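ENTRY TYPE: paired fold submission
RECORD: A
CONTENT: sequence, then structure tokens
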Amino acid sequence: METWARERTRFIFDPIANSIGKLGISPNALTVMSLLLNLVAAVLIAKSYIFWGGMLMAFVAMPLDVLDGTLARALNQETKFGAFLDSVLDRFSEAAICLGLIALFVQSQDTWAIFGCSLAMFGSVMVSYTRARAEGLGIECRVGILTRLMRVVVMAIGLIGNVVVFAIWTLAILSLFTSIQRIAHVYQATRTQE
């Protein structure tokens, strides 16, 4: 899904990345800026500015997260550390948004929403961890229904469309399902290798 989306949006992001490259901004700087903007979005959400937090996350922070990789490819600066930093800060960004929502729901004492946010955050980490662990074993593991892009899209729809509790539970359930899909994939892959 992410590769498909990247190919369909190259005509937008490639020229922007080339312009940013001429300014001397590094891909890693964009990665860090994306995280900082997600932290601001999380604070806005915690302060009940859910719509504006969603807009900032979806239309400023997320495009920067796409642009960092595009810029790295345009400048021929793809590095292992850059890929590592991008992955790690993506997890921080997702956790920040979930923590912003938890802070919001603590104020309204919505126990089920808090539990849903916690489960969504845990599920997101498990989706990433199962892939990282599989790849550490030399097994390609991009299977599953809920990629990073889909998690961001679902969260953005929830925040901007004022259906945040529905989005949270969707993320919680589908991220755990995706983790199970990846476990099954690795199980099958290891059985054929042994």
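RECORD: B
CONTENT: sequence, then structure tokens
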Amino acid sequence: MTKYTKQIGMIISLMTCTSLPLIAQEVKGRVMDEAKQPVEAATVIMQTPDSIFIDAVITDSLGYFTFPKEPTCYRLVFQHLLFKTFEKENCGPDVGIITLQGQDYTLKEVVVSGERPLVKADKGTLVYDAQVLSERTTASNTYESLLRLPGIIEQNKELLLTGAKDMNILINGKPSSMNQNQLITLLKSTPASQVKQIEVMYNAPAKYRVRGAAVNIVLANEKSPDPFWKGEVSGNYQQLVHANGGGNINLSYAGKKLSADINYSAGYEHSDSKMQIDSHHTLPNKVYSIQQLNETEAKHGQHNVRFGLDYQISEGNSLHSAYTGSFKTHGRTTTRSNGNYSDSESFRTSQEQMHNVNLDYTAAFGLNVGLDYTHFNSPSAQDFTNDLNTEKQHFLVDEKQTIDRWNVYAGQNHELPRGWGLNYGINFTFAQEKSGQLYHLDAGTDLSVSNTDTHMREETYNFYAGTDKSFNDQLTMSLSLAGEYYRLMDYQQWAVYPSFQLSYQPSYKHIFQLGFSSDKTYPSYWEMQDITSYINGYMKLKGNPYLRPSTDYTASLTYIFKGKYIVNAYYSYVKDFFSQLPYQSPDELALVYQSINLDYQQSVGLSLIIPFSVGKWWTVQCMFDGSYNQDVCDKYYNISLNRNNWRGIVQMNNTFRLSSRPSLQLEYNLLYVSPTLQGIYDVSSVWKMDLGLKWTFANDKAELKIQGNDLFNTCVPDGKIDYKGQKLNMNMQNINRNLSITFTYRFNGYKEKKHKEIDRSRFGY
């Protein structure tokens, strides 16, 4: 055996040594245009350095080319009718990415050149080219790309679309049972290069299984007759008060029928916040003046993983599966409060884990069925000490929450004669939530009456049907109706949600879109629990078991001029609108945060988007939004409210192309939001300035970005209440200013090697 082992080892070693030069004999690369799109059918000529012809090939549909031979050094000539001829001398097998410049055609002193549009309208949907967006901005992940879209802003760590009360996030046209915070975490770990296009719908049709406004993120799902791998690695460092950082790796495979991608990111977050409270709290026969300074320090680790698999069974028949995991580890939050009412300390430890699995099948005859499952688990523990003027309080509390949510759906689309289309389907969601609090007894403190152990069951049955019609090249219409039965414990409700979209395009310069939609928004499960959590000695958080979903109706009229100038007029009415607001208790010295339903909230507004360019070096996108807002509630605790105000938003994004070779871009963004209101709560105006610099090098494979956000630390809103005996000032002293450095490297175009197939025809029985 030893003899044969040595012989086999020698043969393997010899084969390995002799195969290495054979593997390295291929010369390969990729040809792309200035918009980073592949150039197909470009001629690539290989010559010796003294211009003697060696070979010639044509690029494939993805812009790749391969020469079977590798001279020591050589010259490559790239030719295409629509691009300028380009030459490159190289030594070695890897040519990298070649960027060709567009050809201008001059006819009698008239130069004809084209501009690739950022946005186009398609049947009531605004479609943004994600690659153009990436080229014109410094966005490095999908979340940053969304923030570069006109009308989308970030407020309180949530994404908002001007003119819409709520915004649904879809991935490849499918909603998820993950909530928006979990989806945002996923988007932050998804590279911008992985996104093909972003679709904005103010009135999403029922076939998307969401209602109201929606943003659909279409991921690149490449297929190739010659299988290849590509990927991306990145690392980032962010400096706020404390240092933060993380890394990301993405790997994708494209084959003839199978495509797959895997993404993993890890990070560490460490933040500080401060809030000065000046409360004039009225109890029977006396007004108390309370001043407290609240300081919070929070830190945790974050891990995210996603694995997606797409298989094309045959033409029009495909199977998709994806797993997403999110893990928040070693959470530590310390809150200290000092003032003339109490001195308190709160130490909280926590962790979270979320698992999501999606299976989806699409058939050529228009059928789409799928299953989406999410499991969420979040245990935490709090050690709380409160030193009042009259007593001292100390307790330990364990908290837990577990959620299992299933979503099953089936939909059918039909293409009928004379431009008609028909779609219908079902969408069922089942959720079970278990949560509770367990207070541990301490000397002098007995809070066992606050112990809770809750089991909730939620069921949603949705049925929808819709139709669309293309009357001609100018006029299209879509109409859908969804019926829903909702049950939460003893609460039951039937509802009907209509949706309508009309698009008229009299010429290529003018597009008009009229839409109407209705939707329902559900509170979080934790908000509906009968629980009490203590923030400090004066502030506490209470659940509301009587909290109910809100229903909103939205109408909009959009005008698009030349495919880039957009005017949008909108109106929304939200019945049973709910929000978490502070309220001074009339029974005790306590500032209570609790979500509560108002009678309604309504707003009417107008937004304007104006993009323009100065030469090829300066691109500007301006957004202006003005709205009138009103909140009404006859029974807001022990008072009533009817308040209104005007709000304005101005957003200006600037990109300066400092250099094309090397590629160097400067981004300068401004945002201003005027004062607004939430119930009895007034929110001050905020503004911010962001500055970013992106350097792309190494044949567009490497990218270095330096980003400064909120440079003047002015995007920290203060709050104020002065209404019918409620009087409170909140001065936020957070350090929001931060500097980040991100490095990204992309590797792509690694095709599978073709190996000699072993003859096994005479083996076996």
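NOTES ON RECORD B: The longest strand covers residues 286-314. The helical segments are 2-23, 130-136, 142-147, 180-188.
STATUS: closed
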